[in-house]
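[job 4471] stage=fold_predict status=RUNNING
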Amino acid sequence: MNRRLQSAVCAFAGAAGLLVSMQLRGVHGQEQAPAAQPRTAVPRIIVVIDPGHGGTDPGADLGNKIVERDVTFSVATKLRAALSAEGFSTVLTRDSQATDSVSADQRATIANRSHAAACVSLHATRSGSSVHVYTSALQPVSDTEEAAALPMRWEMAQERFVARSAQLAATLKSAFGPMGMPAVVSAATVPPLDSMICPAVAIEFAPLNTLEASGKGAEDAHYQDWAVRAITAALVKWRADNSSQTSPAKAAQ
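[job 4471] inference complete, writing structure tokens
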């Protein structure tokens, strides 16, 4: 083989080797883009949002011709949008400010028929300060097969969910704090919680008494936005912590 031909063969072999090396680096080298990781499925659960009062029942007078009925509906619609963006399904117990008054039993029926995994009932007041989160005052029953086999009484259906409602309330309290909204958790008889067969809480918004937001009440748009962010964050955490316990019990008798 003459020198010219030999040089050509060597050059071709070198180029081929470089091409193979580049191809292998494309498969095994650091420049290769990482494979897409499968996304963890998020359970799509139903949250019932219960804006207090409505229609001919205006609720509390919050001042400046603003009534509780309108504030709770405003917060509810904002909360529905925020929860939907986080993958929740939502149901409202009333779908407009003009809706005729919805009774406590009707609200509980809507939640129970929706197979809700949680219910948040919204209220507002001009007295007191900060946020109050209420759970049912019913005494919890033991979670045994014998107890589960007994029929539920409508007015005491929540007794099987009191413990989980308390857990939800505690998660909400923790979420309100970082938003500058001190929260207090307590038990009370708040219709329609006692007849709901899911973890259920009532949240009452009172004016804030902090340096950053002194005097702001639930009618304030910023207050409502803070509240919605806190509730949404709490429900996202609560869903993650209770992903295996989102199926409600059979309807109360």
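[job 4471] summary: The longest helix spans residues 3-28.
[job 4471] exit 0
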